[in-house]
């Protein structure tokens, strides 16, 4: 699946300055094509017939480091795309869209050997949506963050964590996004600017941290002020395939009591599973957009902790210790040595 990065507005002046070198490149391509086509017609004596769009010359877009850029990216009302069109004349008028580049899709997602890629580095940004621990602990350098939500997704605790807050023997439950028509999931979108090196560093950190997630989904991100139109499109969200056979980290849904029992008792190198849930609950409260499902699950975990606490307290109650087993050693009295008064004169 082709994926690319999130949108950020680019000033028109910046776009015009970027398009000037690109226009020169396209003019050169058009000139070379026209010359080669004229030579071919003269050599073979053929009369060109109308060609289908599949026969138009195309620039080969190789695979980038992370994911390939789409051949054509649809623009959105709040997004600004640069459509570089090449009109090729070969006896008949044809117009072929050569490549459409989104200046904020992230420079690391663009092919390295594309001739004019560097022209867009200064206009590109990287956006990622945080809906779990990234809400309160992003862990990487970012330039901006926006509170908002994604549509048609809900937050669920169906993903296993075996190296942070759980173990392979007793996995923790962490949240992932599940497609659900009409649902919304609040969180934070983080922006990284400054070129491919900063983007690469952020992405490599996130891929190590979010290793249980086997997908990078592209989501439309909506801000608090406007629920009708997305403020950002193509924002990266780490998600998981809801299939236990193809995704070994997917636990699937379970009864609320069973999930609470698992979260209350799981722990790993980074801490307890319950702390993850409670921190998420507090983070969503601080954002001003509490998640009813998170609150319900957190309350159930607290009930489970009370049960565990009473059980442990009963096991270590002092009434279970026989009185004769309590031994207080006797005190031994020793005479104090006589003090010697020294003459100070």
UniProtKB/TrEMBL annotation:
One annotated GO biological process:
glutathione catabolic process
Keywords tagged on the record: Cytoplasm, Lyase
MF GO annotations: glutathione specific gamma-glutamylcyclotransferase activity
Which SUPFAM superfamilies does the entry link to?
Gamma-glutamyl cyclotransferase-like
Q: What is its EC number?
A: 4.3.2.7
Cofactor needs: Mn(2+)
Gene Ontology CC entries for this record: cytoplasm
| PANTHER family assigned to the protein according to its UniProt record, in alphabetical order | CATION TRANSPORT PROTEIN CHAC-RELATED, GAMMA-GLUTAMYLCYCLOTRANSFERASE 2-2
Places the protein is found: Cytoplasm
**From what organism does this protein derive?**
Punica granatum (Pomegranate)
Q: What class of enzyme is it?
A: lyase
Where, by residue number, does the polypeptide cross the bilayer?
none
Position of the signal peptide: none
Answer whether the UniProt record assigns the keyword Signal to this protein. no
Q: Which family does it belong to?
A: Belongs to the gamma-glutamylcyclotransferase family.
Query: What is the protein named?
Result: glutathione-specific gamma-glutamylcyclotransferase
